[in-house]
Model the fold of this input.
Amino acid sequence: MANSNFDLSGKTAIVTGANTGIGQGIAVALSEAGADIALVARSDASETASMIAATGRKVAIIEADLSTTEPCQRIISETVSQFGRLDILVNNAGIIRRNDALDFTEDDWDAVMDTNLKVLFFLSQAAGRHMAEHGRGSIINIASMLTFQGGIRVASYTASKSGVGGLTKLLANEWAGKGITVNAIAPGYIATNNTAALQADEARNRQILERIPAGRWGEPSDLGGAAVFLASDAARYVQGHILAVDGGWLAR
Ligand code: NAP
Done:
């Protein structure tokens, strides 16, 4: 790379929810910058694995269901035993449930909060213990526009992503002195499975596009540059930051 500060050669990254969407885009971008990648997925991640192998980097798939904290420690141990190190954790896996607040169910609350917030924290804790021991590491959480805004019909998603913003700052405060950077990326409207319902709704799709200064939905690959930056030595003094990658949505 032209600027070696952005070079991730020799580093190992874990990306959760890496079989598709934003996780796939980030995993490929990190591998293109030189990192070896542990893909954490509950579904078939072979497509992402092939894309990473094509960049010449090492890749492993770690099967795990992130609806509970049960696999957190195993994910870190398997990564370290397969690659010999862990430098970067991208907490990307997430779900969304839509319903009016008046009808929102406890199941839709718990499922979203567990995967998007509770597991994100305990996987970060497991990674943080390893990183603190080695005095280095970068954690990147995937936040949302709903880290800043209220949204509508997505009560648990908004609560979870607002929580991700708070936890990102808390962990940065506690771990900056241990050589670990903790930051977040807040994607705007990105064309993935997560937003399939919005894209399919003609009226909502038009309203969304009208508000995006860039005039288009984002693609998973649009998140790659921000992830490489936050994972790299170029961001060693960036702490607790939530970087919007949104085509200008928040600027409106
Ligand atoms: P996506 O295509 O639905 O991807 C979500 C990923 O998380 C998938 O790999 C999914 O696996 C995984 N996942 C969910 N629950 C899991 C579980 N219990 N165990 C293991 N993996 C699990 O949506 P996406 O848009 O790429 O979302 C990625 C992240 O970006 C999420 O945190 C989402 O909230 C956030 N985000 C997305 C947007 C957007 O506009 N798309 C905007 C802001 C934030 P399966 O394929 O097996 O379900």
Observations:
- Residues 17, 19-23, 41-43, 65-67, 92-95, 115, 142, 144, 187, 189-190, 192-195 surround NAP (CB under 6 Å).
